[in-house]
Amino acid sequence: MRQLALDLPFEAVGDVIQLGRRELKAIEATRGPNPSPLLWFAIQSGCYVDLSGGRSVRVEPSIVEGFAVEVGPGCEPMNLGLCRYPATVTVDHRRYPVNRPGYSWDSFCKTQYASDPECGGAANFVRCHVSAITLLERIGEIPGLTVTVRDEGHYGPSHHSDDYREAYAAGRKPTYVDHPATHSIPKLLAECGDYNEMIAALAGALSDRMGADTVESPIKSYPNFERLEFDGHQDPRLASMLGALKNL
Question: For 101-126, how does the pLDDT look when each residue is reduced to its tens digit (9 = 90+)?
Fold first, then answer.
């Protein structure tokens, strides 16, 4: 997996590390002003188990082996690895099955803010996002591994609804289905543009209601933030959300 990462144009690829439960607890205890450089890796190594009453609990792995990828400027680190989890977890004197036999890993990586013009704009974003999806697809070709990708940029495989507008208009829930990879750069850039405008409009509306110094968001550092915010306010899909914010 790490060699596949080294074959792609990432900023940097970390060494493979192995951590047990004791090391993970020590790393997670560093939350605060001086966190361990491995904190985000340790956090993402945990899985969640559903409990009764709509609750869930986080379960730490018994052992994790993996590495971190510095994807590129403005992008979150991409953590990859394999974890072994305990068979059960006890909460309120009751045991719940973890249902994670063998080795597994779940995580996510936000590439959106790699589109910041000061980080390289669209070219940097495309390099980061396409490299991340390509790595996951190549890992999925390793014998014995199964990889599921859900790409909100719709460049790789995705899980989304094609009827959400009709569903909401009819007062029913949208139908979410799996979609194959498009490998379309124009589609990816269009999705990123929509997300940037949505986040800019949301950040601007919250800042207006709560004070500019109260709301922090990477999108506010974009040199074209005001333009993105304006375009977001023109999007009819955001009208109900922005209208609700005005009534806070």
Answer: 999 999 999 999 999 999 999 999 99
24 and 103 belong to one structural domain? yes
238, 228 Cβ separation under 8 angstroms? no
Residues 119 and 76 in one domain: yes
Q: How far apart are CA 245 and CA 248, in angstroms?
A: 5
Structural domain that includes position 225:
184-246
Looking at the DSSP bridge assignments, the partners of residue 80 are: 67
CA neighbours closer than 13 Å in the CB half-sphere of residue 15: 4
Q: What is the pTM of this model?
A: 0.91
Nearest to 209 by CA among 243, 239, 172: 243
Residue 148 Cα distances to 86, 107, 138, 145, 171, angstroms: 22, 11, 12, 10, 31
Angle between helices 121-139 and 185-210 (to 10 degrees): 120
Is 145 among the domain residues? yes
**How many contiguous H segments (helices) and E segments (strands) does the chain have?**
8, 11
